[in-house]
Amino acid sequence: MGTISLPPYSYVPGRNARHPEDWFDTIKASVSSDVALSALGQTQAWQAGLVYFDAGYFWECHEVVEAVWLRTPDGSVEREMTQALIQLANARLKLRMQKYRAVARLCDMVEQHLVNCPKDQPILGLSVTDMRARVMATRDSLI
After folding, report:
1. Does pTM surpass 0.85?
2. How far is CA 115 from CA 13, 25, 34, 109, in A?
């Protein structure tokens, strides 16, 4: 897969320009129709999403992880975890935008997705415990 490069800047709506429309196409293309559900966590899109999230590129995380979400079946734990990461990235973006009520609402949505995931096994490489810690850190930023 190689090294995942960060975009030149973190997009924040209303503050700076969006990335060009095709900027993430190659990354999103890693989630082709022949990728098995069990392999989605190894795709460049998922891995880039995690790198982007950890580096504070929250809009970009959402953009690439959405390609993974589109390949997950309704009701699957993979879909629940993917939606949890997307909503948490959105919550962090809203925090940066100082939209605090939206942050709290999105954190509640993340928790609802995590309730539907098993606590004892990682999903796409993420544990429920780790995700809950990320939610708590996000909520703590509101105080």
Report:
1. yes
2. 30, 32, 29, 10
